[in-house]
Amino acid sequence: PNVLAENCEAKSHTRVGWMRAVANVYHAFAVQSFIDELAHARAVDPRDNLLEIIGPPRIVTPTELGIPRLPNYGQSLEQHPIDTGRMRNVVTRVTELARWSSRKEERRALGLAAHRSFLSYVAVVVAVVRDEAGRIRVDEAWIVTDAGTIVNLERCRAQMEGAVVFGMTG
């Protein structure tokens, strides 16, 4: 009886949807796996293939991509266009940090994935090696995130590191 809770509509810059991004997990995996298969089938470098698919820096609206209104988001998708320049930047930066070209020359096995979710752009490179027992394991990982304004850097870092660990547990 001594508690009063009220709320009102608050305009959010980020589409609400499933804030935990549940659907994004398997969408990112499926799309990035297929893009990697395309690179393999074309016998081209996966980074170059991904950058070719992303295309030149530009702003693309969901309507231009043929994406219909999704009822669970509550806002128009047109308010949140896709910035391919930001996607290209995270891919370019993460592959630079991982020394993509020189590690490939060292015959290191590298994996690359990039995804946009809730106005953030993320790219990851992992290096895998065989251990003494012949099992494949992740040796190193690099993550680059463009999330716009970050209020709590440690929380963002923990989110990205946790995502890599989660991805390795599948």
* Shape, principal axes of CA atoms: globular
Averaged pLDDT, please?
86
Please describe the biggest sheet, giving its number of strands, its sense, and whether it closes into a barrel: 3 strands, antiparallel
User: What's the arrangement of strands in the largest beta sheet?
Assistant: 3-4-5
Percentage of β-strand residues: 15-25%
| Number of E-state strands | 5
First and last CA, distance: 47 Å
Q: What percent of residues adopt helix (DSSP H or I)?
A: 25-40%
Gyration radius (Cα, Å) is 19 Å
Given as residue ranges, the uncertain stretches (5+ residues, pLDDT < 50) are: none
Q: Which class do the helix and strand fractions yield?
A: alpha+beta
Order of helices and strands: HHEEHHEEEH
Report on the structure:
This protein has 170 residues and is of the alpha+beta class. It has 5 helices and 5 strands, in the order ααββααβββα. It has helices spanning 22-42, 46-54, 84-97, 100-105, 153-168, and strands spanning 59-60, 82-83, 109-117, 120-130, 136-146. The protein has a 3-stranded antiparallel beta sheet, with helices on both faces. Helix 1 (22-42) packs across helix 2 and helix 2 runs antiparallel to helix 3 (84-97). The protein starts with 21 loop residues before the first helix and ends with a helix. The mean pLDDT is 86.
State the main characteristics:
5 helices, two-stranded antiparallel ribbon, alpha+beta, 170 residues, globular, three-stranded antiparallel β-sheet
